[in-house]
Design goal:
five-stranded mixed β-sheet, 379 residues, exonuclease, Purple Acid Phosphatase, chain A, domain 2, alpha/beta, single chain, 34% helix, 12 helices, 18 strands
Length: 379
């Protein structure tokens, strides 16, 4: 069987205040063209269909047009799940009759254990979930992390495996060893969102969503499709696109197909005088989203308004003067952000008391952080 793997559409997302609906519609048309050219049997969307749990009316209209064209007009079966940005409750509306047109949209953990069978392949559609959902579903109070939950999930799924079929997991989480970019929501709370790659070995292919770069994970049987668009400056050099996956009983192969952005994310550098000279700005695509690095030391009155007269989509201006100190401060902030909250608590406790947390205190910290994370998700 051949299918297309995409994810992280984030319909309705804005880039530094700029609306991306036009770019998202264009990227979708390219995805649809690839699906037709490659003659895929189905399209997999691994979560984060929307950018917000309560999307705008405009975002909903764009998404609905996409689904109608892809599923009803072009007749592609669609296998999709909700991601951490989606509202599973809202997405679930209409699910029972979506299936009648081969649009399979899973938003609850219990749905993941009923595989969708197409051709020679079983698809297990596992939406984003919190540990408490697994704790309740499996009636196991010992489940406190996603890793613990996934051990139970995979075990239950394997009981549904048919030996004469390929097995594909579609899910939305952070696999240990993957690399994040700035546009992905930071969900680290004591390692709650981390899944070891070793837990996924039973599947012939794992179609992942959540991280926006296709190279975030290099595994023999697992890939992130990445987002169809660049959502931050840190993704500036990433190639965006989709995976075309072929499943056979004895082998699974996949090939990346690139998407060309309607408007790219770029960085340019120069003095204010250089940037405002026609011979400079006429050599670049000024319709792109631009991050500007200024080499000037002096204050420039009305600088941003003048730049936007030439470059209509400026997403940021950075002064390179004094950059070394700024980089040092940014690096310190970055290092703090990469430390798990449990480790930060350990460090703080040690600095204040001069002692280390006991084993029981560490357990209490992890449980409290998990409760805080769950409360924040429920807001």
């Amino acid at each position: 069987m051949r299918f297309l793997h995409t994810a992280d559409w984030h319909i309705g997302k804005k880039l530094h205040g700029y609306d991306l609906l036009e770019e998202q519609a264009d990227a979708f048309q390219q995805i649809l063209t690839i699906a037709k050219e490659e003659q895929v049997d189905a399209i997999v969307v691994a979560g984060d269909l929307y950018d917000r749990s309560v999307p705008s009316v405009e975002a909903i209209e764009v998404f609905n047009r996409m689904i109608v064209e892809m599923n009803l007009q072009e007749k592609f079966p669609v296998l999709a799940i909700s991601g951490n940005h989606d509202s599973s409750t809202r997405l679930e509306t209409g699910g029972p009759w979506f299936v009648q047109s081969n649009f399979h949209l899973n938003t609850r953990l219990d749905q993941a254990f009923q595989p969708v069978e197409m051709g020679n392949t079983q698809f297990f559609l596992l939406p984003y979930f919190e540990p408490i959902s697994a704790r309740l579903f499996f009636d196991n109070e010992e489940i406190r992390t996603i890793e613990q939950a996934m051990k139970e999930v995979v075990t239950a799924m394997k009981k549904q495996f048919k030996p004469d079929m390929s097995h594909v997991l579609v899910s939305h989480f952070f696999v240990a060893g993957s690399e994040k970019s700035d546009s992905e929501t930071k969900l680290m709370v004591g390692g709650l969102d981390t899944v070891p790659l070793s837990l996924l070995e039973s599947f012939d292919y794992v179609a992942l969503g959540h991280l926006h770069g296709k190279n975030a994970l290099q595994a023999e049987n697992a890939r992130y499709s990445g987002s169809p668009l660049k959502f931050s400056l840190s993704e500036m050099n990433q190639k965006k696109g989709v995976w075309i996956v072929d499943t056979q009983i004895d082998e699974t192969t996949f090939e990346f197909k690139e998407i060309v952005p309607l408007r790219d994310v770029m960085q340019i550098e120069g003095s204010f005088k250089e940037l405002t000279m026609p011979r400079f700005y006429e050599s670049i695509n000024r319709e792109n989203y631009l991050h500007i690095q200024l080499t000037d030391r002096a204050v420039i009155p009305n600088m941003m308004n003048q730049l936007r007269q030439i470059y209509p989509r400026v997403i940021g201006v950075e002064r390179l003067f004094g950059r070394e100190e700024q980089q040092k401060n940014n690096q310190t902030k970055k290092e703090i952000k990469t430390i798990a909250p449990t480790e930060l608590v350990d460090q703080f406790f040690s600095e204040v008391t001069g002692e280390e947390l006991t084993g029981q205190q560490q357990v209490w910290v992890k449980e409290k952080l998990a409760d805080i994370h769950q409360a924040e998700r429920g807001k």
